[in-house]
Amino acid sequence: MQIKELEIEGCYLIELPSFKDNRGEFIKTFNNVSFENIPLKDFSLKEEFYSVSKKNVLRGLHFQNPPKAHNKIIYCISGKVIDFFLDIRKNSYTYGKVIKIELNSEKPELLFLPKGIAHGFLSCSDDSILVYKTDCEYNPECDTGILWSSVELELDDLNYIISERDQNFIAFDKYMSLFE
After folding, report:
1. Model-level pTM?
2. What is the DSSP string of 145-166?
3. 3-state secondary structure at position 99
4. Who has the most CB within 10 Å: 7, 126, 144, 173?
């Protein structure tokens, strides 16, 4: 297992071990003991869900405000996405930094995002499936987002499929962070 800290403090890309033979493939996606040297060691799974997205669907940037903020583990089990995330922790030296990476079902990897990171993605194939594990349950009163187009995010100019909710999020330069 390879664990790589990304350019935003506390964010990690974790290459998962996979075992292949003539029957198919077996991949372990979670084991607390394997993550002892990163903040994931204290991750206590509270909720898991997945999204299925058509090609050109753009989702995000999503997060939950305190007191229901959560750490997330994200991975792709079908298709391919351009995953992107933004540091919204006002005291972080990487505040306002955006990173994008490709997640796909051909390369088993986990993305760990700590509290205070807004997350989104662009589906690059039909029926892209992302799985999310969180350490806090969904709370509609704390659930919010930042307008994806208000950050320095370079994506191909496509006809995106975006929910009305995501199109109406606040611009990053107007957002007052609740994260330290």
Report:
1. 0.92
2. EB-GGGS---------B--HHH
3. strand
4. 144
Q: Is 62 a catalytic residue?
A: yes
Catalytic residue among 62, 70, 75, 175: 62
The 10s digit of each residue's pLDDT in 9-44 is 999 999 888 888 999 888 888 766 666 666 666 678
For residue 119, the surrounding DSSP H or E stretch is strand 117-123
| Whether the Cβ atoms of residue 25 and residue 115 lie closer than 8 Å to each other | no
Q: Tell me how far apart the 2 most distant CA atoms of the chain are, in Å.
A: 54
Q: What is the pLDDT of residues 99-111, one digit of tens each?
A: 999 999 999 999 9
Q: DSSP characters for 13-77?
A: EEEPPEEEETTEEEE----GGGGTTSGGGG----EEEEEEE-TTBEEEEEEE-TTS---EEEEEE
**Options 12, 75, 119, 132, the catalytic residue:** 132
Cβ-contact 107, 148 below 8 angstroms = no
The residue among 147, 98, 92 whose CA lies nearest residue 116 is 92
Q: Dig out the tokens for 160 from the structure.
A: 């995106």
Residues in the chain: 180
Is 132 catalytic? The answer is yes
